[in-house]
Amino acid sequence: MSEVDYTLRRQVQEVSNLVVRLGEQVSSVSGQVATVDSNQQQTRSELQQLRDEFMAFVKQAESTANVQRAETRIGVIQDQVDHEFGHHKTVRRTAVGMLQAFDVGLVSEDNVRMVSDQLMIQTPRYWLAPALVALASWSADDRELCERGVEEAFRRSPDRTALFFALVLRRQGRKESAVRWLRHYLLAQDPAALGREFAVILESIAQGAFGLVGRELLTDTLAGWREHLADDAQSRTRQVTRWREEIDSLRQPSAKAEFPRLAAVSPQWPHLDSAYSSARAQQALLDKYRAIMKREFEPSDRVEDAVDDILDRLVSEYDDEELPLRRDLAFNHAVVGHDGDVVAARKASDADSASYEETLDYLTVQTTAALNPSAIGTSAATQRLAVAACNEWFFEAHTGFTRDYRTSVPQDVTAQFGTAHTVGAQTFHLPPWTGSFVRPLAELEKSLAGHWDQHMAPFIASLAYPTARKVAPLIAVVAGILLLVGAIHIGFALVAAVITGGVWGLVLHNGAQAAKRNQDNARQLLERAKTDSLHHLRGASAELTDWYEKYRAADRVDADCREMITSLATATQGGSPFEGRTVVKENQ
User: Fold this and answer.
1) Measured distance CA(403)–CA(516) in Å, rounded
2) Concatenated DSSP letters for 553-574?
3) Those residues with Cβ within 8 angstroms of residue 206's Cβ, 6 or more apart along the chain or in another chain
4) Does this model's pTM top 0.70?
5) Are 212 and 579 in contact (CB under 8 A)?
6) Which pLDDT belongs to residue 48?
7) Whether the Cβ atoms of residue 526 and residue 429 lie closer than 8 Å to each other
8) Distance separating alpha carbons of residues 46 and 41, to the nearest angstrom
9) CA dist 184 to 154, 178, 188, 360, Å?
10) Could you report the per-residue pLDDT of 404-436, keeping only the tens digit for each?
């Protein structure tokens, strides 16, 4: 029996060792699962970071390549411009110098020959060269050469030539002749396809360059053009669209930082943010155009000085043949200026597109002078008159802008919660909850808290230790020991059963305690998340109230804007700053 006892003891010990190792392996596997889950999350985070860094590198490389290509293109285009149109700059500089020499009578017959020989040969297609020959010949009293110069200039560019001589004669005080040239220029114009030099006409109105007679001629002509073009619905729509784009450009940045909780929980936040940004544009619009209309304009002491400025603009204009190259050059400069951002460069280039258009309709010229005067080379005084002349389109665009953002404000603003929280190796998903801020806040809080409790309870319960499922194998093992070993030696069977049950029970107890701690941790974590959700709900409710107050305050500026735009209708009645002194001078 001693040998049998020894064998039974050894078998019991082996069973006990197996149970202990089994418990250790279960604990080890649980720890490994948690480690793997943590490593997976870290790997996903690192991969996302790597992807973001790679995409940023690709974007930076693309931008750098765009800048390099643009710089290369700038050099090529500039060389082409200098080669094909470099002599035009010489003619323009000569024009300014000759006008100054013309004032003091320094244009001699030798000057005429020099101009004729050099400029005509160097620029065989440029209208300004023969116009300068005609001007110099007129000063030198060479009638035949003067007439040939005028005819050749007209052949090359009738519009610019007529306007050039109108300004030169006005500069010399020959008002009647200047107005005749001006009338000749206006009669030859198509209001639907005006040359780029027409901006000089707007500048002449603002500066009073042609006196009262010229102003009446221009006013009557432009009024007729405006009435004719206003019948074209598409043309009118284009102007309203440009004014609408101007107003849209004044929309203020996102207010997400000002309303962080509302932005985080409300699906309607993009609409709220857009409406608030638009409403704040009202003040920006009012400030900008009040400043334009109230801007002090200090004219030159003499009308002749103003005419000189206008002449400079006319003779400095690019020739039509240069425009495609100048347009391409401006775009590539914009690419470099925007650090390779082609989209931003294209947008900036399109904003100045009027600078490179060969023809524009009269309504577009007025709008461009009001919105982007630098694109056509007009002054602040001209911009002020142009803004006033565009009051109808301005008003229509502003009305549509205000109507659109007001109707975009959501009638029902809601809060939505649906989160996920990792608890050990498991993840709790809170199903989406939506509540309308139309309901009382206390009612919303109660509903959200109940939603959390409803879904937290079964999740926490699922983390409990499965005692029944774990005890079943223990009972089977103990029963097997009693049956198999008890048939040989009942005493040893009882000892083996007790030891096995004790060790296994200890493992089960440890597992149950670990599960209870996991439940407690999960309960604390989810209770904190629940409390945070309620805090966010209260904060979002308070921010929504604040949003409505600020939105209404910004929207109230609309009345001042409408009043300002309406007042522009009478702003066009004011004369040029030169008219008073011009009248006195002409009556002397």
Assistant:
1) 60
2) HHHTHHHHHHHHHHHHHHHTTS
3) 378, 379, 381, 382, 384, 385, 576
4) no
5) yes
6) 75
7) no
8) 9
9) 12, 10, 6, 20
10) 999 999 999 999 888 776 665 677 778 889 999
Whether residue 330 contacts residue 349, with contact meaning beta carbons closer than 8 Å, is answered with yes
Helix (H), strand (E) at residue 296:
none
**What is the secondary structure of 161-190 as a DSSP string?**
HHHHHHHHHHHTT-HHHHHHHHHHHHHT--
Query: Which strand (E) or helix (H) includes residue 440?
Result: none
Reported as a single tens digit per residue, the pLDDT across 248-281 is 999 999 999 999 999 999 999 999 999 999 999 9
Q: How far apart are the first and last CA of the chain?
A: 151
Average pLDDT by consecutive 10-residue portion of the chain (588 residues)? 54 56 54 53 69 77 80 74 56 60 54 56 68 76 81 83 83 82 86 80 77 82 85 87 95 94 93 96 95 72 54 59 67 78 72 58 88 81 87 94 96 87 70 90 90 81 67 67 66 69 70 72 80 90 95 96 91 43 35
Q: How many other C-beta atoms are found inside a 10 Å radius of the C-beta of residue 574?
A: 11
Contacts of residue 39, Cβ cutoff 8 Å, sequence gap at least 6? none
- The DSSP call for residue 435 is E
Residue 21's CB is within 10 A of a number of other CB atoms, namely: 10
Type of residue found at 262:
L
**Token pair of 62, please?**
């693309």
What is the distance between the alpha carbons of residues 183 and 203, in angstroms, rounded to a whole number? 16
Return the sign of the alpha-carbon dihedral for residues 178, 184, 190, 191. positive
* DSSP secondary structure, 573-588, as one string: TS--TTHHHHHHHHH-
Rounded Cα distance between 478 and 497, Å, is 5
What DSSP line would sit under 207-249, residue for residue?
Answer: HTTTHHHHHHHHHHHHHHHHHHHHT-HHHHHHHHHHHHHHHHT
The two three-digit tokens of residue 318, written as one number: 């690019």
pLDDT of residue 316: 55
**pLDDT at site 273:** 96
- Counting every residue written for the chain, the total comes to 588
Residue 376 has phi, psi (to 5 degrees) of: -120, 10
Residue 372 tokens read as 């982007």
The 3-state DSSP class for residue 423 equals strand
CA atoms within 13 A on the CB side of 277: 18
Q: Identify the CA nearest to 474 among candidates 522, 430, 511.
A: 511
In 3D space, the residue among 517, 422, 522 whose CA is nearest the CA of residue 40 turns out to be 422
E strands in 40-120: none
Tell me the pLDDT tens digit for each residue of 441-481. Answer: 999 999 988 888 888 888 777 766 666 666 667 666 666 66
Separation of alpha carbons 570 and 289, rounded Å: 15
Q: How far does Cα 487 stand from its chain's mean position?
A: 89
Question: What is the DSSP-derived secondary structure letter of residue 147?
Answer: H
Helix (H, G, I), strand (E, B) or coil at 520: helix
